[in-house]
Design goal:
mainly alpha
Length: about 80
Amino acid sequence: CVGLRPDEITFRALVGACVRSGRWAEAAALLVNMQEDGIRRSVSLLTSVVEACEAQQQWNEALRLLDELGEVALEPFDGPL
């Protein structure tokens, strides 16, 4: 599997697993990886990580992600409807 790169679906599955297991730091790190790989992060994905941070009382990280959420929400969507 040399040369294979995770896509949006892969990242969504990984972030979802982290969120469900309370691993907010890993979920937040995956969001950074998505951005670095040029993969668009959706509002719903960011929101789920914010909620995971809140559940673990990670207020600073939740606030940081909320700032990013505002930026993502304003980006134009160019995918299929």
